[in-house]
């Protein structure tokens, strides 16, 4: 019998799974983890409006706004297993870390669970 091939999860699907897990695992903290709307395709007008309002290229996908273990927050960049950071993301990571924010890259729900549990416990 052949194994059924599965389509790899998109970054968006991984992120959704992570948020769903977090909200069930840490319901009292659910408002402190939020997505940053800095990705995706938009028309030029919407992109210009978002830039005007302060959206920055490279900002992490998720921010857990809880100080722990000497860090100001946990910044989480979501990637697929083969995804790579863009230069703007690397630059933003350096800046975030300079100001005592922990920055991690998560490529799966398991990565996310490990990082969040380690950070919060």
From TrEMBL:
Pfam families: VRR_NUC (PF08774)
Cofactor(s) needed: Mg(2+)
Presence of keyword Nuclease: yes
Keywords: Hydrolase, Nuclease
Domain of life of the native organism: Bacteria
Listed InterPro entries: tRNA_endonuc-like_dom_sf, VRR_NUC
Residue intervals of the VRR-NUC domain: 1-110
Name the UniProt record assigns to this protein: VRR-NUC domain protein
């Amino acid at each position: 019998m052949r194994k059924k091939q599965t389509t790899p999860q998109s970054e968006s699907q991984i992120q959704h799974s992570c948020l769903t897990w977090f909200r069930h695992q840490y319901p009292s903290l659910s408002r402190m983890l939020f997505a940053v709307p800095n990705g995706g395709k938009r028309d030029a007008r919407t992109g210009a409006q978002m830039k005007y309002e302060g959206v920055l290229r490279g900002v992490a996908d998720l921010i857990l706004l809880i100080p722990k273990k000497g860090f100001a927050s946990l910044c989480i960049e979501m990637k697929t297993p083969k995804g790579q950071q863009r230069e703007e993301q690397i630059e933003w990571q350096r800046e975030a870390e300079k100001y005592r924010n922990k920055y991690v890259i998560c490529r799966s729900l398991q990565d996310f669970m490990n990082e969040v549990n380690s950070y919060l416990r």
